[in-house]
Amino acid sequence: MPIRIPDSLPATDILEGENIFVMTEYRAMHQDIRPLKLVLLNLMPTKIVTETQIMRKLSNTPLQIEIDLMQTASHEAKNVSEQHLETFYTTFDEIKGERFDGMIITGAPVELLDFEDVDYWDELAAIMDWSATNVHSTLHICWGAQAGIYYHYGIPKYELPTKLFGVFEHEVVKPSSPLVRGFNDFFMAPHSRYTEVHAEDIEAHPDLELIAVSDEAGVYLAKSTDSRHFFVFGHPEYDADTLMAEYDRDIAKGLDMPLPRHYFPNDDPAQKPRATWRAHAQLLYTNWLNYYVYQTTPYDLDSMGEEAEADALRAEGIAHE
């Protein structure tokens, strides 16, 4: 899928250098098709790194995608230039009148805070509420997954005794789900977090289903039964060296950090880590886009609001004419 992004976005040169199909704005304007409209709510402090990683995963399927980058207005980003944000990012107030085929909500380094204590929680809650009528399908990642499954379904998070950090083996527990179509029975995925959700809480909820878990890392994939919400509790978008960069950063701060597990060859940080999760990470994004966005989204996005209104009226037992 050629990914349509602004010509001057830093990710453009990076992705083109990796032989990834990036469509410039000029070329996209001369194609007579409707691209999928996605909005990426980037909550990570390293915004350029995160937007590049996710765009890399969105790029390798056969459709055109148009992406809006969104930041929270109630939180000041400190690790990216104001010029980058002003040039490429929008806010909720600027796009809340629009509709999107899909949305991605990233993780954020705020896991040890209660959700309601996060300084942008009220804004994030408003965005997640808005998504019910203005977004066809939403993919939540890591803390974004914990926040989404808590807000929409009341599933709590639990603090871990130590940081879950490394690359872990996972098992597909619902192989019939199109989300994991083409997956091996067991696959690898990175995690980097201090909190978790419990599989039994998800299994007990009638509107949720468990897709993949790990004996060491716990829940990895879950979704709503109506396929409107997807929850990924790890970081499939991570590059091969992302965990190493996090480890080096924390060691430089004087923190007593263990090595990321199952990551460095022979557990030797002097050796270059290898990405053992890249293929399944790509397949995860491709399956979500194909089976849960492209195959089911309305061609006329304006009809999405009409369908949501009809669903609300039916839920209230009111006849809709």
Automatic annotation (TrEMBL):
Identify this protein by name.
Answer: Homoserine O-acetyltransferase
What does the UniProt keyword field contain?
Acyltransferase, Amino-acid biosynthesis, Cytoplasm, Methionine biosynthesis, Transferase
Lineage of origin: Bacteria, Bacillati, Actinomycetota, Coriobacteriia, Eggerthellales
Q: Where is this site: Important for acyl-CoA specificity?
A: E111
**Which residues does substrate bind?**
K163, S192, R249
Q: Which family does it belong to?
A: Belongs to the MetA family.
Listed GO biological process terms: L-methionine biosynthetic process from homoserine via O-succinyl-L-homoserine and cystathionine
List, in alphabetical order, the Gene Ontology terms for molecular function in this entry: homoserine O-acetyltransferase activity; homoserine O-succinyltransferase activity
Q: InterPro entries, per this entry?
A: Class_I_gatase-like, HST_MetA, MetA_family
Q: Which GO terms describe its cellular component?
A: cytoplasm
What the entry lists under PANTHER family is as follows: HOMOSERINE O-SUCCINYLTRANSFERASE (PTHR20919:SF0)
- Position of the signal peptide: none
Pathway this chain belongs to: Amino-acid biosynthesis; L-methionine biosynthesis via de novo pathway; O-acetyl-L-homoserine from L-homoserine: step 1/1
State the compartments where it is located.
Cytoplasm
